[in-house]
Design a protein that fits this description.
With about 400 residues, the protein is mainly alpha-helical. The chain contains 19 helices and four strands. Strands 2-3-1-4 form a four-stranded antiparallel β-sheet, covered by helices on one side. Strand 2 and strand 3 form a beta hairpin. The radius of gyration is 25 Å and the shape is flat. The two termini are about 15 Å apart. About 0% of the residues have low confidence.
Length: about 400
């Protein structure tokens, strides 16, 4: 089996490869020679991605749905070329930028690996050598840790003490497996598996402690952990203990603001807003270190909502960004617009921009306070992908 993974996929995706994927490289280059010719759909998508990245052609934004669609446009073109060259040999699937292809012989796998790298290079992409390998079959269809967690029996509410003990044993097993294999999504899997449990009140405290322990062990589990807490609490009529949740969220903010982990900090801030949990002065002081628009907007909203005490949040660095002459069209335009619109901070470039002024007058906003609601967690889904035939469905 050939297991292949792309290196830094979204940060290195070459925007000019988008029209190559849609219209072919030859057709795209002919447009460049004929400046009077109308730009193609691919050219426009390319241009819009450049606008979102300070005019740079390498890398697209991580997270927005348009980036998932754009990535699939390019990777679908890679699929087509791979199938054109090796259709009789291709057996497997692609998920976003991960390939798993099986072959009769080692030589076939090596041939397709070389061809895949060649095709990717035409789109200015490359394989991650550390995660690309050819391995002998048979392999287990599931990871050992997934089998262990999936077969774990958790008793129902008829045995409250037994159910509580089962939760403790289950999460103990998950924590043990995660400590020996930190690269695998073990804790996220463990959390997802217990989302539909009907927890007895006698075991609710232990259940909460286990879920919050998963966040403390790995802050990237925040979305899964928060969704699990909310869903199980709603089903069983329980209340999520704000004290312990607040301790964990403040710890995540303090730790990950310093290391610049915007995703983890943003989720912690969102949860603070969703459950009206105060942010400690210690945690709030670290937020000003981050030049992340989403983090800044959430922090400013938390302050305006009274979750951060007045004069604790350090906004000096953000104010400097908003004072730049091109703040309305530069990297931090989102913070410049939202902070000015909501009167958290002031950006003269936004105020003097006719387009932004018209948008403000029309009530346009990119941030919705209504979505600071735990029910939003239930809308999170997975990202499909792949044109290769899936023989493992």
């Amino acid at each position: 089996m050939l297991k292949a993974d792309l290196s830094q996929f979204y940060p290195t995706l070459y925007t000019h490869s988008i029209p190559w994927a849609l219209h072919s490289k030859a057709a795209s280059k002919s447009v460049l020679k004929n400046k009077a010719k109308t730009k193609s759909l691919g050219d426009n998508i390319d241009l819009f991605h450049m606008y979102m990245n300070d005019g740079q052609t390498h890398g697209i934004a991580i997270g927005p749905d348009i980036s998932h669609i754009t990535a699939e446009i390019v990777m679908a073109a890679v699929d087509q070329q791979l199938l054109h060259r090796y259709r009789s040999q291709i057996c497997g699937f692609r998920y976003i930028d991960d390939f798993e292809l099986s072959f009769e012989t080692l030589s076939e796998a090596e041939t397709v690996l070389g061809g895949l790298q060649s095709i990717l290079s035409t789109f200015e992409l490359s394989l991650n050598s550390r995660k690309t390998q050819i391995v002998d079959l048979p392999l287990g269809l599931e990871d050992r840790w997934a089998i262990d967690l999936n077969k774990f029996v958790i008793r129902n509410k008829k045995s409250p003490s037994g159910q509580r003990n089962d939760f403790i044993s289950y999460f103990s097993t998950a924590f043990e497996r995660a400590s020996t294999d930190p690269a695998s999504p073990i804790l996220r899997y463990a959390l997802a598996r217990v989302q539909n449990e009907n927890v007895d009140p006698k075991g609710w405290g232990a259940f909460c402690n286990c879920v919050l322990g998963a966040i403390s062990a790995d802050a990237s589990t925040l979305p899964a952990a928060l969704a699990t807490l909310h869903k199980v609490a709603t089903k069983g009529g329980h209340s999520i203990p704000k004290g312990p949740l607040g301790q964990v969220l403040n710890s995540v903010i303090s730790k990950h603001s310093i290391t610049g982990d915007g995703n983890e900090v943003a989720w912690a801030l969102w949860a603070s807003l969703a459950w009206s949990i105060p942010i400690s002065a210690e945690a709030a002081k670290t937020l000003g270190l981050m030049e992340d628009d989403i983090v800044a907007i959430l922090a400013l909203d938390a302050e305006s909502s009274g979750l951060i005490d007045a004069n604790v949040l350090d906004k000096h660095a953000w104010s400097l960004l908003l004072n730049e002459d091109d703040a309305h069209i530069a990297e931090h335009w989102l913070l410049s617009y939202e902070a000015t619109k909501r009167r958290w901070l002031s950006c003269s470039a936004v105020k003097n921009c006719t387009t932004f002024s018209e948008m403000m007058n029309a009530g346009v906003s990119f941030y919705s306070r209504r979505r600071n609601n735990p029910d939003e967690l239930l809308k999170i889904g997975s990202i499909p992908g792949g044109r290769l035939p899936n023989f493992y469905a």
